[in-house]
From TrEMBL:
The gene is Cabcoco1. PANTHER family: CILIARY-ASSOCIATED CALCIUM-BINDING COILED-COIL PROTEIN 1, COILED-COIL DOMAIN-CONTAINING PROTEIN 189. This is CBCO1 protein. It comes from the Eukaryota. InterPro entries: CLAMP (IPR032727).
Length: 129
């Protein structure tokens, strides 16, 4: 269902789609384990997407992305994006846990994700045809 929702149609042949699927699935199950409500899970998944979009589409540096995430989590972000934080959505402890999760999942491997999105790779040869 997650792959269908994310419109990932080439999971078996696309390394990029497989990595994105793993990223979002890990985040979803982490939020479930944190006993987040449905609204909180939705907000958290939005933050995951926000941070990944900053990297992939906007090509933000790690430092800039962390600053944007801080603004989003605290609800004082001043960007043109429609996604924003809600001060009442997460408790302080939950907010800290979310930041820890993002640092251990996305930000720790930022260079790897940059490579995934911005370095052109040769297509593998899958057959003689």
């Amino acid at each position: 269902k997650m792959a269908e929702f994310l419109n990932l149609t080439q999971l078996k042949t696309s390394l990029k789609e497989t990595i994105l699927f793993d990223y979002y699935t890990a985040g979803f199950w982490w939020a479930k384990e944190m006993n987040f409500s449905l609204i909180q899970i939705s907000g958290f998944m939005g933050l995951l997407n926000f941070a990944l979009e900053n990297l992939s589409s906007k090509r933000m540096t790690l430092g800039d992305n962390v600053k944007e995430l801080e603004r989003a989590v605290t609800g004082i972000r001043e960007t043109e994006s429609e996604e924003g934080g809600d001060l009442n959505l997460f408790s302080l402890d939950q907010g800290k846990a979310i930041v820890d999760f993002l640092f251990s999942s996305l930000f720790q491997y930022y260079k790897t994700y940059e490579y995934l999105f911005h370095v052109r790779r040769e297509e593998p040869v899958l057959s003689n045809e």
